[in-house]
Amino acid sequence: MPKKDIAEFLEEIGGMDVESLVNCVCRHHLSYLGRDYGRTDLFSLYQSLAYTLRDRLVGNWIKTQRSYYNQRAKSVYYLSLEFLTGKSLASNTISLGVEKEVTEVLEKFGVTLDEAEGAEADAGLGNGGLGRLASCFLDSMASLGIPGYGYGIRYEYGIFKQAIENGEQVEAPDDWLHSGNPWEFNRKGFMFTVRLYGREEQYTHEDGSVRHRWADSAKVMAVPVDMLIPGYRNGNVINMRLWEAQPARRFNFDLFNSGDYIRSMEDAVRSQTISKVLYPNDRLSEGRELRLVQQYFFVSATIQDMMRRFMKLKLDFSELPNRAVVQLNETHPAIAIPELMRILIDEHMLNWDVAWRICRRTFAYTNHTVMPEALETWPLDMMRKVLPRHVSIIFEINRRFMEDVKSRFPGDENRLKRMSIVEDSDSPQVRMAWLAVVGSFIVNGVSALHGELIKKSIFQDFVEMYPGRFTSVTNGITPRRWLRQCNQPLSELITEKIGEDWVTDLAQLRKLEPLAEDPEFQDRWYKCKLKEKQRLVEYARSEYGLYLPADWMYDVHVKRIHEYKRQLLNVLHAVTLYCRLKKDPNSVTVPRLKIFAGKAAPGYFIAKRIIRLINSVGAVVNSDSAVNHKLRIAFMPNYRVSQAERIIPATDLSEQISLAGTEASGTGNMKFALNGALTIGTLDGANIEIMEEVGREHMFIFGMDADEVGARRHNGYNPSEIASTDQELAEALHYIGDGTFSEGDRELFRPILDTLFNGGDQYMVLADYRSYVDAQDRVDELWMDCKKWLRSSILNTAGSGHFSSDRAIMDYARNIWGVRPMKMDK
Ligand code: 26V
């Protein structure tokens, strides 16, 4: 071993000055890419720049990991089947504090940072809010010095690419790795074996006790692939470890030897499918075996990695909860609970009670939705086939739990049925949420409202059983990516006025309040917004061939397409404006561009038809000169993190219009407010808390609240009656049905109208229509008063400090994890 310190090696790699960076870029061109640096293209330049930055991260990464070990720090294991990272070039550049230098380096090659990042593929290893939240949390853990790791799957294919053909969504595979990923380290040397299938076996241990083990299992290898996550200018670098499935090294040796080469290769291919593709559903639990295998695969590898680190400390097992805390992002990794039990009981021979106490103190569970169809359940038969030993452990957990319930609520048979982890029916199911609640020391919702709603609905019985176990932590977003990086003009203006500390202490944005009415400041605020609109115009043109007007009001609705998010309500408003304009071209005062973007789950028929409707209404509106001077509609294909970074800073009006009680939190709502958009929204999820911080008078709140929704449901809701008493609504619905937007085809949108009139309008679109349209009229009114609008816009940014993921992570750290920010070793 050389006696050199890491610092000396790093010195050889080179410094942060422009010259060192240029040299390093050229060297990587030569030695990594095997190419002449005199002949760079955009992609090779991006790659060698990424390697150059990775060189500058890895030293701090090692130092950070060593500090964890040396200080015996309690660490957070954030387990998530999804991480929606997006691109890393700009973000890492900013965190390293070399923005100026990198810009200068790229200038020498005739390229901007924006252009260089254009060559990077989005890491889209998630569906939406839940996965993006996980990525924001890693950024905050790194920036705060909270010891921890992100663990997930390195999907070869991320969330599908969406194209729009003939107005409809068409899916294509997201081959994000096809040119390699310069940010990652593949660590083949540190893989673990993961077992699957087989059977449970009883045997007598040498100490005479009867024990169980897992026999005749199949094996796959889990290879760690690490992505480095730097903190903001603090020298911390944390690890996101994503597991890749590979065939066991001596896979199916028997088949090989017997000469059945092809069949043994088939097995190898099958093991690789485990990490092949992200499931593109964000609600419906389909009960697919491959999905269960994915869950166990990454959980097993992660818990092995955690135990490896813990065993190095040579402590009693009862110390585990003082050294590690596992945060379960939804129930997707909840199989970790019986897995840790299995390891403690079967492999380390602990007795049940001791093992259970350890488990219960190690896990915490975050719930992200109240919707019953998203509650994960697994058919018992399937689970028994894939994980035979875990099923008997789950039965034992449940048996003991049922005993507890019985002694607390004697004779309450219905309660037992409701609370049983194994649902007793013709096709028994394992209820993962119940398992997660029973096996965790704390369960949290993701906004104040959501935290209360889950206590009153899905978890009511469990609250009666374990009153202290439920809490909430309001979501947050990283101010680095979602303001500092994505909105350069506004960031610079803010920093000029209040200094740069807001980047790591977002509450400081309050200091903007006194400036809200300052005409000079308002003017500069307006110009920032305009710049971002121009940037979006250019992006939409070059990426999608869309021509957007730059000086209109940008009214933006971007998120997954889902009935509960009510894109349909927004379309009804668009059609209403269309009708008004057709009758009188001067009836609408404000020129408005409605921007939509979002993916629909490939099997979600109605959501896809809603996309078709948006595009169809758009096609008619945009080409009708009686209308298109005041209203245009753009659907931006393939919504993703990097696209959101372009759209959000340019937005004037943020649409957050879910049916109250259905959106657990929302995080897009926070990103828009932070960037000075005004929200039109319902009293749902974190909208409520945004209102409390920003002030109701600076938002457009409309519609029923969650209690009113409940009452209305209870009293019988009749959508037809509403449609027949509101003339504008009736007219809008009529045009959707009569073929106005479908070249005379009256069938195309019938399924959508059917959900309203024959399906009972589950998400009460019609009930909130009038109050929504009235709120939109108030939007126009305020827009006409430019000064007032700008004041509200500034106050939205000023009031967004609470929604930093730094605040959210500190809440978790203090109230759930019991960990503190750590000082790094020198
Ligand atoms: C559920 C399922 C069910 C089984 C099939 C695959 C699958 C994939 C993802 C999910 C999670 C759905 C829950 C979810 O995404 N919730 C969103 O979480 C955000 C972060 O907390 C929150 O802001 C959104 O309001 C909430 O909808």
TrEMBL record:
List, alphabetically, the PROSITE patterns matched. Answer: PHOSPHORYLASE
Q: Which Gene3D superfamilies match?
A: Glycogen Phosphorylase B
Cofactor dependency: pyridoxal 5'-phosphate
Enzyme nomenclature, EC number = 2.4.1.1
CDD domains noted in UniProt: GT35_Glycogen_Phosphorylase (cd04300)
Per the record, residues carrying N6-(pyridoxal phosphate)lysine are K671
- The answer to whether keyword Transferase applies is yes
> This protein's superkingdom?
Bacteria
Q: Does the keyword rRNA processing apply?
A: no
Offer one example of a GO biological process linked to this entry.
glycogen catabolic process
- Keyword annotations from UniProtKB, A to Z: Carbohydrate metabolism, Glycosyltransferase, Pyridoxal phosphate, Transferase
> Record's Gene Ontology CC terms?
cytoplasm
Q: Which InterPro entries match?
A: Glycg_phsphrylas, Glyco_trans_35, Pyridoxal_P_attach_site
GO MF terms held by the record? glycogen phosphorylase activity; pyridoxal phosphate binding
Q: Which reaction does it catalyse?
A: [(1->4)-alpha-D-glucosyl](n) + phosphate = [(1->4)-alpha-D-glucosyl](n-1) + alpha-D-glucose 1-phosphate
Task: Return the similarity comment.
Answer: Belongs to the glycogen phosphorylase family.
What does it do?
Answer: Phosphorylase is an important allosteric enzyme in carbohydrate metabolism. Enzymes from different sources differ in their regulatory mechanisms and in their natural substrates. However, all known phosphorylases share catalytic and structural properties.
* PANTHER family (alphabetical): GLYCOGEN PHOSPHORYLASE, GLYCOGEN PHOSPHORYLASE, LIVER FORM
**Name of the featured protein:** Alpha-1,4 glucan phosphorylase
Q: Which organism is it from?
A: Maridesulfovibrio salexigens (strain ATCC 14822 / DSM 2638 / NCIMB 8403 / VKM B-1763) (Desulfovibrio salexigens)
